[in-house]
Amino acid sequence: MEKIFEALASTPRRKILAYLSETELSAGEIAARFEMSKPSLSQHLKVLENAGLVTSEKRGQFVYYSLLRDNLAHTLTGFMQSVCPVSTGLKKESRALAQSKAKAAASKTKPAEE
Fold first, then answer.
1. Backbone angles phi, psi at 22, to 5 degrees
2. CA proximity to 48, closest of 29, 27, 32, 28
3. How remote is the C-alpha of 80 from its chain's centroid?
4. Residue-range domain boundaries for the chain
5. Statement: the pTM of the whole predicted model exceeds 0.85
6. Which keywords accompany this UniProt record (predicted)?
7. Residue 79: which region, alpha, beta or left (left: phi > 0; alpha: psi -120 to 50)?
8. Alpha-carbon torsion (45, 51, 55, 56), positive or negative
9. Residues 25, 17: contact at Cβ < 8 Å?
10. 53-66 pLDDT per residue, tens
């Protein structure tokens, strides 16, 4: 979680995430949107990738980046639940519901005794 918040602390990295929110972009397409050196941009992309927020794929001579939306959402949800006092009771209730659903599903799959 620490890596994600460190990654989100930078305005350029948040802007990169916004650009990637709807489509994948090549490193060159991302660089065209910023006034910074390519090594600086590369470092920002590396931080985002190390935090698990983006993934890269090399295709030919280009590297394409895309957002790992679920990692960001799960981390932020987990953080909010850990700092929000009302979430503790809700998490317990959710856990109990999940356990009762699992028990009900298990009892339905057991063969009937004769």
1. -120, -15
2. 27
3. 14
4. 1-100
5. no
6. DNA-binding, Transcription, Transcription regulation
7. alpha
8. positive
9. no
10. 999 999 999 999 99
> What residue type is assigned to position 3 of the chain?
K
Tens-digit pLDDT profile for residues 8-64: 999 999 999 999 999 999 999 999 999 999 999 999 999 999 999 999 999 999 999
CATH number of 1-100: 1.10.10.10
Local structure of residue 24 (DSSP, 8 states): -
> 67: Cβ–Cβ under 8 A, 6 or more apart, which residues?
17, 20, 21, 53, 54
Q: If DSSP states are collapsed to H, E and C, what string results for 48-99?
A: HHHCCCEEEEEECCEEEEEECHHHHHHHHHHHHHHHCCCHHHHHHHHHHHHH
C-alpha span between 87 and 80 (Å, rounded): 8
